[in-house]
Design brief:
The protein is an alpha/beta fold and 219 residues long. The protein has a domain at 14-42 and 103-217: P-loop containing nucleotide triphosphate hydrolases (Rossmann fold, 3-Layer(aba) Sandwich). It contains seven helices and nine strands. The chain is globular and about 75 Å long. It binds adenosine-5'-triphosphate and the ligand Nc1nc2c(ncn2[C@@H]2O[C@H](COP(=O)(O)O)[C@@H](O)[C@H]2O)c(=O)[nH]1. InterPro entries: GK/Ca_channel_bsu (IPR008145), Guanylate_kin-like_dom (IPR008144), Guanylate_kinase (IPR017665), P-loop_NTPase (IPR027417). It catalyses: GMP + ATP = GDP + ADP. Its main location: cytoplasm. Pfam families: Guanylate_kin (PF00625).
């Protein structure tokens, strides 16, 4: 099933994916982008070093700490936070451009970023989804299996995962990412349902007005 159009007469929806590191949100984000190429992925800026295979402007914009802080000082970040001793943030310009094109925007960010986007001055609809791992042992297996971080980095991320998980009640939906295909299907259903709700909302007051007029005419 292909994605329903996101370009109905409404402004873009901000879709926020958060999870403890390693639960699978980047994997799910990639699948969502493949399902609906009209989605705009918000490429974050970060001060962390690029991993092998990561390209500037694709996975992240890799910035120096000073470069990042300058962006924040200029108001160029929609949200930003310190995560695992590095700075991460969502550049404002591409998000605003996508919204102006009527596109929905996908964020792969932590709970601090999630809070800031939900409270941001953009006044946009947000849809937030928290991804849980099926177990802590499996979370660690996934972080190790990814094979991209040192033991020290992995143990730091495992320690922070409990705090990240404690923010699940702030999200509209929570999914346990056990079977990847099943989680992907659930995620797509959530996005489709929210788009349907938002696209129908403006017509509903007209429909109810007509229904009420019909009641009046029957009296
Ligand atoms: N449902 C799943 N079952 C098994 N492995 C999975 C599943 N989902 C993701 N993975 C694997 O787990 C590893 C971590 O996934 P991913 O990089 O998407 O996590 P993440 O939440 O984006 O992490 P980070 O926050 O550090 O960016 C990857 O190797 C990925 O292939
Ligand atoms: N608040 C934000 N958090 C972000 C952003 N981009 C990523 N992240 C979070 O960082 C961790 C670690 O990512 P990694 O690529 O180093 O593994 C990840 O779990 C995200 O939650 C951002 O723009 N803002």
């Amino acid at each position: 099933m292909s994605a329903p159009k996101s370009t109905a007469a409404r402004r873009g929806l901000l879709i926020i994916l958060s999870s403890p590191s390693g639960a699978g949100k980047s994997t799910l984000a990639k699948r969502l982008m493949k399902w609906d190429p009209s989605l705009a992925f918000s490429v974050s800026a970060t001060t962390r070093a690029a991993r092998e295979g990561e390209t500037h402007g694709v996975e992240y914009y890799f910035e120096s700490r000073t470069g990042f802080e300058d962006m924040v000082a200029r108001g160029d970040m929609l949200e930003h936070a310190e995560v695992f001793d590095n700075l991460y943030g969502s550049p404002r310009g591409p998000v605003e451009a996508a919204i102006n094109d009527g596109r929905d925007v996908l964020f792969d960010i932590d709970w601090q970023g999630g809070q800031q986007i939900r409270n941001s001055v953009l006044g946009m609809h947000t849809l937030s989804i928290f991804i849980l791992p099926p177990s802590i042992a499996e979370l660690e297996r996934r972080l190790r299996g990814r094979g991209q971080d040192s033991d020290e980095v992995i143990s730091g991320r495992m320690k922070k995962s409990r705090d990240e998980i404690s923010h699940w009640p702030e999200y509209d939906y929570v999914l346990v990412n056990d079977d990847l295909d099943q989680t992907e299907e659930r995620l797509k259903s959530i996005v489709s349902a929210e788009r349907l709700r938002l696209s129908q909302q403006p017509q509903m007051s007209d429909i109810v007005r007509d229904l009420n007029a019909e009641f009046e005419a029957r009296q």
